[in-house]
Amino acid sequence: MSQGIEFNRLMLEMRSMQTEAMARAKPAASAQEVGAPSFSDMLGQAVGKVNETQKASNQLASAFEVGQSGIDLTDVMIASQKASVSFQAMTQVRNKLVQAYQDIMQMPV
């Protein structure tokens, strides 16, 4: 039963992150508004979130390794997978940005 609850919590987190991302994408589609974050700010925030996710995963794993009470293996594995998926997604975004930059630089002027 604990795994079902953890899965539901994970799904709710993912849905809230998706809703947040969609809400941020709508203003970006229109002209940049006054006070709206720049692309570099948004990219920096994304990298920061990935870093925070990895740190939290490492802390949870360390706490489990030393036998701290209240830390479940499923929580450790879920945190580890979240960190892995977020890092892979960030890597894919970086790859797409590098490819777009290279394509632009190769365009004839």
Short description:
This protein is 81% helix and 0% strand. The protein is mainly alpha-helical and 109 residues long.
Describe what you observe in this structure.
By secondary structure, this protein is mainly alpha-helical. It has a domain at 40-105. 81% of the residues lie in helices and 0% in strands. It has three helices and no strands. Helix 2 (39-65) runs antiparallel to helix 3. The longest helix has 33 residues, at 73-105. The radius of gyration is 18 Å and the shape is elongated.
State the end-to-end distance. 62 Å
In total, the number of strands is 0
Radius of gyration: 18 Å
Number of helices: 3
Order of helices and strands: HHH
Note the quaternary state here.
single chain
Please state the average pLDDT score.
82
SS-based class: mainly alpha
Question: What is the 3D shape?
Answer: elongated
How much of the sequence lies in strands comes to: under 5%
Note the main sheet: none
Low-confidence stretches: none
Helix content: over 70%
